[in-house]
Amino acid sequence: MQNQEETHKTRLKEIFFIIVISVIPIFLIYLPFILKLKQFLFLTIQNPGIFNIFRNWDGPNFLMVARTWYDLDAIGKRLFIPVDVRYFAAHFPLFPLFIALLSTVVNSLYAGILVNIVFGFLLNFLFYSLAKKYTKHPLFLTLVFTIFPPRYWVLRSVIAAETLMLFFVLFSLYLWEKKQYALSSVLGFFGVLTKVQALFLFPAYVLETIEKKMRKNASFDIRTLWMGFIPLAFVGLSVFFYLKLGDFLAFFHAEKGNNLNIFFPFSQFNYRAPWGGFRLEDVIFYFTALFICIATLWKRKERSWFYFVLSYTIFLVFVPHEDIARYAFPLFPIVLLTFESFFTSKVFKWAFICILPALYFYAINFILVNQAPIADWSLLLK
Q: Residue 26 — φ and ψ, nearest 5°?
């Protein structure tokens, strides 16, 4: 009985600290805007207030979906940027659905933020539960996961679908390794309805199943066929877009507007291309980390992790986009868990403490720049 009480107290402490880790960093991001500061040290805030958070991309786009549900006429009346009305097919419906449901209680703007914060906590709790199996410092690793790289700190703080998508992806991978194939596939299904990146679970599970069959010469486990739910979500969504927008390939046409193209490997380094640049050294560091992770996972027992990182990284190699940090978001928890000994070492902890101000100023600065030009919010709110 006493052991049960101690376990219960320990669990409550863990939950409390995960809540703190999940909420305090976001509150710190909001603080200059809540206080309506015009000047935050060396950063000038031209339009003080919390709407700096709400205006961040792709939040207004998800609010548009939550308001119109891809109705072309309704979108046309509410456009705040000069794009084709079918552009919003790049923003999948599950995250807007949560916003719409919660907006029956609170304003849609706050509903979007609350959905992200709640799933941020659930994602951190899931990550912490996984981290306990790999490290003696799971809380610190969860803190790192929350705010590093700082692009992820931003995504947790604004109206963005990445947190929700990553929760489904990581939970799906966890359950697949535990051979709970049906539930894992259902979570993958929901992940795809959130963002297309979750679709890469399917090749990972296919390759893991083939390898298991070849290595162990085992009989085929019919339960793995549940993985078919994952691409089925994308097919079903394409049918839905055809019915609503008149275009089965609406997602691909919409993503062209985001400069998401499949091209020659590493072609983001072509400065003449519309997506190109020449100051992109950070991209090389991201790819280096991912290839090291692939090589390390090659001999690890978590085969679905290996194939997920492999297939997704191959995709990134052919995507000429400078914002690799955001696109690589689904891979970073696996990178942290794979190299947990480094990310929880004393050397990294000291470096992490020193770099905290840089992470914070990066996040605030990014939010001040990455904003949609919205003059009339009533067009997007319920």
A: -70, -40
**How far from 162 is each of 58, 127, 151, 191, 328, CA to CA, in Å?**
10, 15, 11, 10, 11
pTM of the model: 0.94
Tell me the residue type at 15. I
> Residues 308, 204: contact at Cβ < 8 Å?
yes
Three-state SS string across 157-188, please?
A: HCCCCHHHHHHHHHHHHHHHHCCCHHHHHHHH
Residue 301 β-bridge partners:
none
SS (H, E, C) 222-233: HHHHHHHHHHHH
Domain residues of the chain, as ranges? 33-369
Query: What string of pLDDT tens digits covers the 382 residues of the chain?
Result: 556 666 777 788 899 999 999 999 999 999 999 999 999 999 999 999 999 999 999 899 999 999 999 999 999 989 888 888 889 999 999 999 999 999 999 999 999 999 999 999 999 999 999 999 999 999 999 999 999 989 999 999 999 999 999 999 999 999 999 999 999 999 999 999 999 999 999 999 999 999 988 876 767 788 999 999 999 999 999 999 999 999 999 998 888 766 566 677 777 777 766 666 667 778 888 899 999 999 999 988 899 999 999 999 999 988 877 778 888 899 999 999 999 999 999 999 999 999 999 999 999 999 999 999 988 888 888 6
Residue 285 makes CB contacts below 8 A (sequence gap 6+) with: none
Angle at 122 between CA 190 and CA 233, to 5 degrees: 5
Structure tokens at 205: 């599970």
Compute the radius of gyration of the chain from its Cα atoms: 21
What are the phi and psi torsion angles at 337 (to 5°)? -70, -30
